[in-house]
Every structure is written in C-alpha cells, then in structure tokens.
TrEMBL record:
The keyword Signal does not apply. The modification 4-aspartylphosphate is found at residue 94. Pfam families: Response_reg. It comes from the Archaea. Residues 45-156 form the Response regulatory domain. SMART domains: REC. PROSITE patterns: RESPONSE_REGULATORY. It comes from Haloplanus aerogenes. Residues 1-20 have a biased composition (Basic and acidic residues). Keywords: Phosphoprotein. Residues 1-42 are annotated as: Disordered. GO terms for biological process: phosphorelay signal transduction system. This is Response regulator.
C-alpha cells in the first residue's frame, strides 16, 4: 500500500510487502510444450527464424497476444531446419542469418518435406537469389504488427 512521506512530499511503496504474482495471460503457460489450445481455437504453428534477438522477440510478442498462434524460435538457418517438423505451418525467415542464410534454408526445404508457407521478412529487397517466386510471401523490413499478422493470417 502506498504511503505518503510528509518530509519528502512523495508517495512510497513498501517493497517488502508480499504480493501474489500477477496472473499469467490465458494463452501462455510455464512450459510451452505442455500448452493446449483453448477449446474451439484452431492454432497455427509459426517458426520465426531471425538472428536479431530484439526483432524476433517483438514478433513473438505480437503473436503471443493472439491465441491463434503457437510460436517457435530459431536464431539461425541451421536451427530453423532442425526445428522444422510436421507441426510447423508457417516458416518466417530472415534473409541474412549465421550458419545458413535464408536462401540456403529455402534451397534445403525440399529435403525436409515441409509443405507449409514460407514468408521472408528481410531488410533486403528481393533479388535473383531469393524472391517471391521462391517463397509464399516476401516482406521488407521494417514491418508493423498489423502487416505482419495480416500476412500470417492470409497464409493460415
């Protein structure tokens, strides 16, 4: 409970006061592997592959607010291929990543049996090495939440 300190003219909070932790949002759990979709909600699994941790986390937060999405993350192309299984519906891929680049991942998708959508999200324009003909969609950064979620929704 805040208290007013007359000498300092400020309110202060007793940080030693025990409070229960805030409730977790309905669409998150302690262990994502044990998460079950809410009844009646058709969930789409999205694998986000981007080596920019802050940008990737923004994408995760945009999707976490909506119970339609199950999100997986990869920090490079090799990790993306390793996490690509039959449950993944949409692969969101940065173009320039360590170990395997976006174009190298796209070239190897035939070896995986992946049949979902591939959306490239890159700061670089499409070119002869990777363009809309190689992927389901090519978005150029920066991208806002509405554009990104709309692109995923159209590919569900």
């Amino acid at each position: 409970m805040p208290t007013f300190n007359k000498d300092r003219g400020l309110y202060s909070i007793d940080h030693h006061e025990r409070r229960p932790p805030p409730p977790m949002p309905a669409n998150t759990t302690q262990d994502a592997d044990d998460a079950q979709p809410p009844r009646g909600v058709d969930r789409t699994t999205v694998l986000l592959a981007d080596d920019d941790d802050a940008f990737r986390e923004s994408l995760v937060l945009w999707l976490a607010a909506d119970e339609r999405w199950d999100v997986r993350e990869a920090t490079d192309g090799e990790e993306a291929l390793a996490k690509l299984d039959g449950a993944v519906d949409i692969l969101v891929l940065d173009r320039r990543m360590p170990i395997l680049s976006g174009p190298e991942v796209v070239d190897r998708l035939d070896e995986t049996g992946f049949e979902g959508s591939v959306i490239v999200l890159s700061a670089f324009e499409p070119d002869g090495h990777l363009d809309e003909n190689d992927t389901t969609m090519y978005l150029t950064k920066p991208v806002d939440r509405e554009t990104f979620v709309d692109a995923l929704t159209r590919r569900r």
